[in-house]
């Protein structure tokens, strides 16, 4: 194995670069404001909406829908309803005490 490809040898000699390299590729077009607003409206209209209903409406795959719901909108499925996962300060205090 060449020294250039051996990260351990580089690290051992103090030649470590922690910067991410730019990766070529197509940016995600499924997670955008239009789709997030559509999902937000669907949840506001019917909190029992399913992944499959959202997929049928948007025509996107499940991983993108899951990303929109959980990472972008911070929504969690609780007892078959979508709930925003934002606790207000009073609720946080009640949980601790």
UniProtKB/TrEMBL annotation:
The highest taxon in the source lineage is: Eukaryota
What protein does this entry describe?
Answer: Histone-lysine N-methyltransferase SETMAR
Provenance organism: Eumeta variegata
């Amino acid at each position: 194995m060449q020294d250039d490809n051996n990260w351990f040898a580089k690290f051992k000699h103090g030649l470590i670069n922690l910067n991410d390299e730019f990766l070529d590729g197509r940016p995600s077009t499924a997670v955008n404001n239009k789709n997030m607003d559509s999902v937000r409206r669907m949840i506001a209209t019917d909190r029992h909406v399913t992944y499959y209903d959202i997929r049928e409406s948007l025509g996107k795959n499940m991983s993108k829908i899951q990303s929109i719901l959980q990472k972008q909108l911070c929504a969690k499925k609780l007892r078959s309803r979508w709930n925003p996962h934002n606790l207000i300060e009073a609720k946080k205090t009640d949980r601790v005490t």
